[in-house]
């Protein structure tokens, strides 16, 4: 039986005051006033109605996993900021998943506030896979509406957003709603076995951790003359920090989450690092970096070294290595426990379970049993861990955990409309102002 990721609360109460949210009040909910049309889905065998918020590739993948986890469940509503994206995803999902996709024309929503209509349509569970900027807004709205939530990583792009997620998590507990994260490593049998062995002391005391998430370039959707600046940035959300959090937060955060788990959910003292734009220098790539290297310092001298890069023509590697006084735990081609000389001593038994499907199996079972899963502390903590690293690389400064978590810098536009200006605008040369280490202020 899965144990809650929030089981180690005392660490956060005694150090770094992560749970003292009253002193770090979440900003006013944009979901205030949304009518609560339903309570939590009652325990029983009724078919779950699922709504998708964010109709990109990750959203479609989440729907496929959710419907594979429960063959009685149905997708009944979809929302995306862009009408074409919502329509195209509805058609693609219907073609691949058949009768489990039952989204009629009246339940295909778009615009900046269409998610409200989706939540009023009678869904029991919402899958959130929109650009990360909107995650706190949509989590709040779901909980206010009495809807269970699966939220893809990361949970926010700034510290105020993290604090909003924490507040929503508290409300989810009060309302007995599930709030499950897309950090699927936590739902992997192999990872649970491997990290359980670390916690049992099989590699001794952890002295250092090393991760790499080095890949090639990603997608870009170009620019059409009829698009406003807001639409261009929303269509190409990955390349703007206010929307994605930068790729250290959007992509590498999976590894930050694993490290938080390995370190018994204890936060680092501080972080410092390097980063910049070496290859992706054209204006179309917005204001994010193409590489980050971060060092996180923990009590007792433990250090976590995080490397991530998105550049073409380079050596790529995705790995985690935990160094202990008695051995190592490696995840390069799968989990391996090794001695100090690198000899493999253990590998996990293969369960055949897909973590992305298992996540929904456990979530739906918990909903039916009336024992909701609430990942909010772990998911907020891991997101904040990555944001701390970005603050260090963007500024070139050492940033402490307390400084980062207490930050009141909100990465958001003044209003959400297609003709509204985004928070970052191109200069006369067409280039977007991007962070310069040693110059840029993040606090």
Descriptive notes:
The chain has 2 domains: 9-186 and 356-376, 3-Layer(aba) Sandwich (Rossmann fold), CATH 3.40.50.720; 189-351 and 385-406, Dihydrodipicolinate Reductase, domain 2, CATH 3.30.360. Helices cover 33% and strands 18% of the residues. A hairpin with a 5-residue loop joins strand 13 and strand 14. The strands form 2 sheets. A 9-stranded mixed sheet has the order 14-13-12-11-7-10-9-8-15. Strands 3-2-1-4-5-6 form a 6-stranded parallel sheet, with helices on both faces. The chain is of the alpha/beta class. The protein has 14 helices and 15 strands.
List keywords for this structure.
single chain; about 450 residues; alpha/beta; Rossmann fold; nine-stranded mixed sheet; six-stranded parallel sheet
Order of strands in the sheet with the most strands?
14-13-12-11-7-10-9-8-15
Number of domains: 2
Distance between the termini: 42 Å
**Largest pleated sheet:** 9 strands, mixed
Which superfamily, in CATH terms, is the homologous superfamily of the largest domain?
NAD(P)-binding Rossmann-like Domain
H/E series: HEHEHEHEHEHEHEHHHHEEEEEEEHHEH
CATH architecture of the largest domain: 3-Layer(aba) Sandwich
Instruction: Kindly provide the name of the CATH class of the largest domain.
Output: Alpha Beta
What is the residue-mean pLDDT, rounded to a whole number? Answer: 91
Principal-axis shape equals: globular
């Amino acid at each position: 039986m899965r144990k809650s990721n929030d089981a180690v609360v005392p660490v956060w109460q005694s150090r770094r005051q992560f749970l003292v949210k009253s002193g770090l009040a979440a900003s006013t909910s944009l979901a205030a006033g949304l009518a609560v049309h339903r309570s939590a889905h009652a325990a029983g065998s009724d078919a779950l109605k699922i709504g998708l918020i964010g109709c990109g590739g990750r959203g479609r993948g989440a729907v496929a996993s959710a419907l594979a986890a429960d063959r009685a469940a149905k997708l009944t509503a979809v929302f995306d900021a862009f009408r074409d994206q919502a329509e195209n995803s509805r058609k693609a999902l219907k073609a691949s998943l058949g009768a489990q996709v039952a989204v009629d024309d009246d339940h295909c929503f778009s615009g900046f506030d269409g998610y409200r209509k989706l939540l009023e349509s009678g869904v029991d569970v919402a899958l959130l896979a929109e650009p990360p900027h909107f995650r706190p807004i949509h989590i709040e709205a779901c909980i206010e509406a009495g809807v269970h939530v699966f939220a893809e990583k990361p949970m926010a792009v700034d510290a105020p957003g993290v604090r909003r997620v924490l507040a929503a998590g508290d409300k989810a507990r009060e309302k007995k709603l599930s709030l499950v994260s897309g950090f699927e490593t936590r739902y992997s049998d192999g990872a649970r076995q491997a990290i359980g062995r670390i916690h049992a002391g099989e590699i001794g005391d952890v002295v250092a951790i090393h991760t790499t998430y080095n890949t090639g370039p990603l997608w870009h959707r170009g620019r059409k003359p009829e698009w406003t600046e807001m639409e261009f940035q929303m269509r190409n959300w990955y390349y703007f920090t206010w929307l994605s959090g930068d790729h250290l937060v959007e992509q590498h955060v999976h590894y930050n989450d694993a490290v938080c788990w390995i370190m018994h959910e204890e936060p680092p003292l501080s972080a410092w690092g390097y980063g910049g734009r070496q290859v992706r220098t054209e204006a179309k790539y917005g204001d994010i970096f193409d590489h980050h290297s971060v060092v996180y310092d923990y009590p007792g001298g433990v250090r976590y070294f995080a490397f991530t890069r998105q550049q073409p023509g380079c050596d790529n590697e995705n790995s985690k290595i935990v160094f202990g006084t008695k051995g190592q735990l490696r995840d390069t081609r799968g989990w391996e426990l090794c001695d100090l000389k690198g000899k493999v001593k253990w590998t996990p038994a293969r369960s055949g379970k897909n973590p992305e499907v298992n996540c929904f199996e456990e979530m739906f079972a918990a909903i039916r049993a009336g024992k909701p899963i609430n990942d909010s502390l772990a998911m907020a903590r891991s997101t904040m861990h990555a944001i701390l690293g970005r603050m260090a690389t963007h500024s070139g400064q050492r940033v402490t955990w307390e400084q980062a978590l207490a930050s009141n810098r909100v990465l958001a536009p003044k209003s959400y409309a297609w003709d509204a200006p985004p928070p970052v605008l191109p200069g006369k040369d067409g280039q977007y102002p991007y962070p310069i280490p040693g110059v840029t202020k993040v606090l």
